[in-house]
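for the record, two folds in this file. i put them one after another cuz i was lazy. first one right below, seq on top, structure tokens after. the second one comes after a little note so u can tell where it starts
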Amino acid sequence: MSIQPLPSLAPARSIHFAEVLMARESITPMDAGCQSYLIYKLEKLGFICEKHKINGVKNLIARWGQGPVHLAFSGHTDVVPPGPIDKWKSPPFSPVISENKLYGRGAADMKTGIAAMLAATERTIASLDPSNMSFWWLITSDEEGEAEWGSKWIAEYLSSKNVQLDMCLVGEPSASTRTGDTIKIGRRGSLSGTIHITGKQGHVAYPKTAVNAIHKASSVVNALTHYPFDTGSDDFPGTTIQITHMDTGSFTDNIVPSSVRIEFNVRYSWQFNQNSLSLLLRDIIKNVDVQAQVSFSRPCEAYLSSPNNDSEKCLITCVEKAIKGATGRYPVISTSGGTSDGRFFASERTQVVEVGVPNATIHQVNEHIHLSDLLTLEDIYTDILKNIGGR
């Protein structure tokens, strides 16, 4: 494979911005100077920027304009570790182009999304109306990690300042094959759980004097996996549960185990929230084994953005039109995939849409996208900004 250094192409601002950001080794929760670069660029465009460092996580909150329509761009500067360096065709934090493809960690997830938004902001800022629009940049360095002090904190901070977003555009890689082929308007929630089952240890030859914790655990697992959760709809996958681990401690083949730890994860639809789901799961488990101990962890709420009746203020409609203008086709509307930071901003008032480059190589060795996908995303973001905030 022929590899050349990434060129600085004047007309393609997003390629240059991607080069600058991808060259910074910002492995979660490190930012490595990405947000300082964004602040430098945004302040030149008239944004008021705030820097917040919370428990080792860096957050950037930037605002332009004082208008009643609040539009935000949400993204993250952190990336996952590169994995085995010797498997990369080029250094993961030295972005390169080969055969019109941009290689490097963050090429898809999601420094190119930030680069495209920065380029679109530069292209449109002079035509936006600050008396009609408040334009926010909400950037964190902790999306790939625990996400406790990143976008979640930013959303709580905005709420404390009585800022209510109308629309939030998330730059996550939403496409399947080509930029614009898919957008996401919601995500299933996620809830992990741990169950401790207690039995009575004994000799396998005398089962009447023992209580096998595995047998009790099997009944609990059967009840959970056969419970008729919702099946979802055409627009939203149903709720599913997966048992991810079981542990009985040290093994001896002539001892009936006295305890079992069960780990599980539920991906749930918008019909549940963390509280209602955890109550249901406790009931299912306790109906089988009243002595079982249950705890929950890593909650991520589900969300679903519905089209606004006012087409001029409907982010979904605006994104669809921009994609049609840039690609000649309308996108598939999806809610598939894992969790995203969009959940922290979504509400009955706040529409959240994810639109970005293809996600085929995210978190992989030799992560890459085609340059055309980045340039298309820049055009899409540009049209969205013009349509929402233009004079």
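(here's the note) second protein begins now
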Amino acid sequence: MKNLFSISLSRKKWAIIIASFIVFASTFGFLIYETSKKTVALTLDGEEKVIQTHSSTIQEIFDDLDITVHSEDYVFPSLDTKIKDDIKVVWKQAKQVEFRKDDEKKTVWTTADNVEKFLKEQKVSLNEHDQINQDKKNRIENDMEIVVHTAFPLTLVDAGKKRQLWSTSTTVADFLTQQGISLTKLDRVEPDLNEKVKETDVVNITRIEKVTDVVEQPINYAVVTQKDDTLKHGAEKIVTEGKEGLVSKKFEITLKNGKEVSRKLLSEEKIKDKQDKVIAVGTKAEVIQVASRGSESAGTDMYVNSTAYTASCNGCSGYTATGINLKANPNAKVIAVDPNYIPLGTKVYVDGYGYAVAADTGSAIKGKKIDVFFSTKAEAYRWGAKPVRIKVIK
């Protein structure tokens, strides 16, 4: 019985020893396993974390963390780098961006943190006139749209005034809107509003404006002559003084760049009627004693061609052939004659001129022709050249 007890005790001791050895071996193995791990500092899309790992490469770390790394992502060091204790690993996941620069559009994968870094990555530099639809400090998001319009120089001529400007617009209408320029229905623009603008183009605006203007204008009176047999022949008398009338006219004026180019009469209204000037012209016949001077003129009227002159005509001295100073005697009644036809010193009556004396000659006065003296050129012009009846007095 004693032997059986001893054998049983001996078996229990061995069981305890073996169990203790297994626990010790397991604990020792665990300690060795844990202490053999390497420390890795990870920065994953900006988030930092530290892990202990038995992975032999960076790729194995990402596999353990169930992270899929694409070729567009940023990884440093490379995925096949061997793991060393205290190694630092950085991973940035690439994002897809729709990037449009003027007429060029493309899809870009980027690991840039913000728009400003993305533009540097794309080697795009902006000047003060360029436009972008995003703030440069905005963080890059997946499927973000970034649009850049590059500015170019343009010349604007507005109502004749020239300015050099920059534009990022695609049409003339967009460009004018960008500059805060408004148009009226009458204004004209070249090129057409729907045309695309290009570098060094000239956009010309012609300003058309229509305004109304009301003016008052005088109405000229007419001079009316009437025969009066109570007045001696050729005498004149004012019966009624002439008075101007007045009319109000409304015009539509077209202005081109501020200057009048056309005027259209819309309406007119008479404010005051005109009063014509009435002059009585004498027709009373006079009895003239005509001295005999040959068969042609004796007792009969004489018809001659007449012209008029003044003392200040070209080549005139101011003195007549008989010595009369016409400048000193502007009211003198003198005619120039051909002495072979009408002797100098002869007194005559000229219809429409009155009594006169043949006291002058002229190189152009030959035969049946006379030259009538007036003190002013205006009177001489009014007389003109015409046939006239004269009577020789003596």
